[in-house]
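W.,

You were right to be curious about this one. When I first looked at the sequence I had no strong expectations either way, so I just let the prediction run and decided to look at it fresh. Below is the sequence, 221 residues in total, followed by the output.
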Amino acid sequence: MTAGLPSLRGRRSLREEITELLRAAVMAGELEPGVTYSAPSLAEQFGVSATPVREAMLDLEKEGLVEIVRNKGFRVTSPSPEELDDVTELRALVEVPTIRTLAERGVPAAALERLRPLAAEIEAAAGRRDFIAHVALDLEFHLALLELAGNPRIVELVRSLRMHSRLYGLRDESHRDALFASWHEHAELLDRIEARDGPGAEAVMRSHLGHVRGLWAELPA
């Protein structure tokens, strides 16, 4: 974690912004499992008061990302390798066919164009090697894309599954470099959907999930 509060989208309250950043930091493996973090120490890194950080951590506790350590702070929960594999399997079962159906059914061009700036932001985050911003933006992109399918239950299910993911491999420089190869897939996915290429969109989505699974290979000791 670095000092200062990085701005992602500039349209949220301070509490929401910090919640999003802390959530992404947990998912990216930047906040380590088993380590107890205090609200004041995190607040100092963000350059804000402890109150919104404490509120944000309570939000993450409700999501199951952290647990309260009495009189000390919050500890990041640690899914097992088997649980991470289960998340991958479930995401593939839900997201891959949904994306294919979305492409074959067709999506208004204007709806896809609204997502292209977000895909560009993900690539920009990659360029500056801001992995916390990448995880937050990637989550926003995929949920917004799934919303186009018109089934809010799918969106909430995938949101819940993503909350239990961890990209521990981002700590390894070689894995970070490998992930760069997947960032162009966001724009490619939009291209496939725009072309109403169902099999192509399915293939890109399946490949994208495969890249993510590779980053779960190295779990913290």
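Here's what jumped out at me. Confidence is low (pLDDT under 50) at residues 1-9. And, maybe more interesting for your project: The first strand starts at residue 36 and ends at 37.

Coffee later to discuss?

I.
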